[in-house]
Specification:
The protein is of the alpha+beta class and 174 residues long. Strands 1-3-2 form a 3-stranded antiparallel beta sheet. The protein has 6 helices and 3 strands; from the N terminus they run ααααβαββα.
């Protein structure tokens, strides 16, 4: 492919100068059509207002509006309150079951159980790098990695989601 020198290429021809704006003729046809439509609309409104019985229809419409205003009034307040739920709520006792109390207890998060201490320590280190503190507890010959206690289950769920996002551990919150 031959080498082309783009610097020495011919410049495009200058554009011709625009002519000064000439005054356009007034759109007589458009003005006449619009004025004719306005006159027709005015004649239509005049015809509606001066037809026979227009005053009687206006009086009926005003009477109907007055009746609706009278109907919108509130009924008188009853002498005795038909509802007794307010008094019932004041004397109501609530009994909480043990399961509901356990749900409000501090939450722990269990992240793994290992036969060897080395696996548990590795998981604990990975969790520490993710910003979640954990402890290793030994029970029945296994080493369990436990995080917590958390004040609420929501905080435990936040840490669980953090570990899942970083693909460190799939923890369990009882």
């Amino acid at each position: 492919m031959p080498h082309q020198d783009y610097v020495k290429t011919a410049r495009p021809a200058p554009r011709p100068k625009k002519k000064p704006n000439e005054k356009k003729p007034l759109p007589v046809l458009l003005i006449s059509v619009v004025s004719l439509l306005i006159l027709a609309f005015g004649a239509f409104l005049w015809h509606i207002s001066h037809r026979p019985g227009a005053e009687a229809a206006a009086a009926e419409a005003k009477a109907a509006v007055a009746e609706t205003v009278v109907k919108d009034e509130l009924p008188p307040k009853p002498s005795k309150e038909p509802y007794t739920y307010i008094k019932e709520l004041q004397t109501k006792e609530i009994q909480v079951e043990a399961e509901q109390l356990a749900a409000k207890a501090p939450a722990n998060m269990y992240c793994g159980a290992f036969k060897a201490m080395e696996g548990a320590q590795q998981l604990k280190a990975k969790m520490a790098f993710a910003g979640v503190s954990a402890e290793i507890k030994q029970s029945s010959g296994k080493y369990r990695v436990v995080s917590g206690p958390y004040v609420s289950k929501r905080q435990a769920q936040n840490d669980k989601n953090k570990l899942l996002q970083q693909k460190i551990a799939n923890c369990w919150i009882p």
